[in-house]
Every structure is written in structure tokens, then in C-alpha cells.
Amino acid sequence: MLASAGAITRRALLATLVAVLGLSTVAAAATSTLDELVALNQRAWSGEPELLAETYAPEGVHTATFYDRTNEYVGPDQIAAVTGSGGGPDMIGPRIDIRLDEGDWRWASFVSLGGGSACLWHAVDGQIVRHDCMVPEMSYQNRPAASVTTDPDTLAAIAELDARLLGAWGRESSLEALETVYAPDAVHTARYLNTTRTYTGPAEIAHVALLGSSIEPIGDLVAFEAPPGELAWAGVGTVAGGAVCLYHAVDGLVTRHDCLLPIRG
After folding, report:
1. Which of 114, 157, 177, 190 could lock onto 135 through a cystine, CB 3.0 to 4.6 A?
2. 258 closest CA partner among 173, 178, 177, 196
3. DSSP state letters, 143-199
4. d(Cα 60, Cα 196) in Å, to the nearest integer?
């Protein structure tokens, strides 16, 4: 999607000033690399909302999906209303690049909100067209912010459970395998661009888990801090060209498995 004529004119004028006066500014090169776009957008969310018109396409969409609802904001003006007065959400964990084709960038990132949230991003020609986030709480809650953990025992437990969970998905698996990794009342949600689908319990989850191919990971897992006896983590997989999922487990069984998919359902 292309920027407005006004935005293009602003950029042309700014580029001319930079060339003539020898100025240095992040905004002038914002669309040249993903690193620069991410840095500029972090500034926009951290007290410089006027930069949102540079980082988001005029019709760019930001969504926040909670356990009970999805909030949608279209265009820089609406998105500015939820950036706050400064500070912005704390970025935690690595950025995971999914696809960086010329003029078409997709990536995942993680923030401290709600005990550890995950976002999928899509930028075209240097501007964000989709910014979809999964926040692991009800919309009326305000869970403490999270950070990533490097505790080796926690990382080992997450890696073992995640491997078993991924192995339980796919046409070669079974309901019995799903029952070894999901709690009886576990909830799995799939948030598409236009709808959210919910499955409760291993038998319902089997309706989608046993239909397709096994899931291949993209990048490393991101492990969040969690209370004793609980595990919380996120991962990016090959489903739908690159989806991100948040996981929560209690006593070794997955209780929540919430995913963002960059396709319509």
C-alpha cells in the first residue's frame, strides 16, 4: 500500500533538505531498512505520536486481541489515541524476522504488557499496514508487566513441553497425544485478520490440530517470567506463512494456547 501524496511530498522535501544541508535524521531514511522503521516506530509509541504518519500507512491497522475481545484502530490518528503520553510498551526478547522480501517485510516482536504479549507486523514499501497483538488477559485486567527469563531450569522445562506440544500437532498425531500436553479445560484460540475461533479441551483442539502438517518453528522461543508451577512462553511457526503463539502452562500441562495468523479465517 502506498503513502498519501502529502506524505510522499513531505519525504521528498525532507530528502532534499538532508542532501542540501547535510542534515541527519532517522525519519528521512525510515523506509530504507526494517531496523530503521522499527526504531522510528518505537519513538512514535514513546512520546512522538506525530511520527505515526510516517511509520503507518494511511489505512494501516493495529489490533489488540484479549481473551474476551479484539480492539481495532485504523489509521495513524486512531492508533495515536492508544500510544499513551510517553514511555510506550517495553520491548522484550528478540525480534523474529519472518520474511524480508523487497518492499514486503513481516516480523514478530514481544512486549511486557499483560505478563508478556506478542505482535505480528507487516510493512509494505516501508510503512506498516498491519500490527496485530495478542495480550494474554481479559480486556478489563491489568496484569503486571513481564520480562524474559534466562533461568536454565525454566528454559529446559519450556523447551521440553513445547517440543511435545508441536509433536502432538499434525495428521500423524492423535487425541491421546494431545491429552498428554493440554489440560482438560485448556483453551486454544486462533485470531485471524477478520475473526477469532476458540476451541476448549483436547477433543475440540483435535479438530484443528490433527488436520494439517506438523508445525515448524521460526527462530527461538521467548520465555517469560511466571509464578512458581507455571510456564509462559511464545513462539513463531510456519503456519499461514508465519504465525505467532502465546502459551501458558500449569503443572506441566498447557492451559492457554493463543495464536495470531496473518490470513483471513
Report:
1. 114
2. 196
3. PPP--B---HHHHHHHHHHHHHHHHT-STT--HHHHHTTEEEEEEEEEE-SS-EEEE
4. 20
Strand order through the sheet with 182-191 = 196-200, 182-191, 253-260, 243-250, 230-237, 217-224
Dihedral through CA 8, CA 14, CA 17, CA 21, nearest 10?
Answer: -150
Regarding pTM above 0.90, the answer is no
217, HSE (Cβ side, Cα atoms, 13 Å): 15
Contacts for 106 with CB less than 8 Å, ≥ 6 apart: 97, 98, 99, 100, 120, 121, 122, 123, 241, 242, 262
Which cell goes with 141? 485486567
Average pLDDT, rounded, for the chain: 88
Q: Which H/E stretch holds residue 70? A: strand 70-74
- What's domain 152-260's architecture? Roll (3.10)
- At 170-187, the pLDDT tens digits run 999 999 999 999 999 999
CA distance 229 to 236: 24
Query: For the chain, how long is the longest CA-to-CA vector?
Result: 69
Query: Of 235, 233, 219, which is closest to residue 116 (Cα–Cα)?
Result: 233
pLDDT, one tens digit per residue, over 125-155 is 999 999 999 999 999 999 999 999 999 999 9
| Matching CATH number, 5-134, of 3.60.15.10, 3.30.1050.10, 3.40.50.150, 3.10.450.50 | 3.10.450.50
Match 512462553 to its residue by C-alpha cell. 233
Which distant-in-sequence residues (6+ apart) come within 8 Å of 152 by Cβ? Answer: none
Quote the cell numbers at residue 255.
492451559
Residues forming CATH 3.10.450.50 domain(s) in the chain: 5-134, 152-260
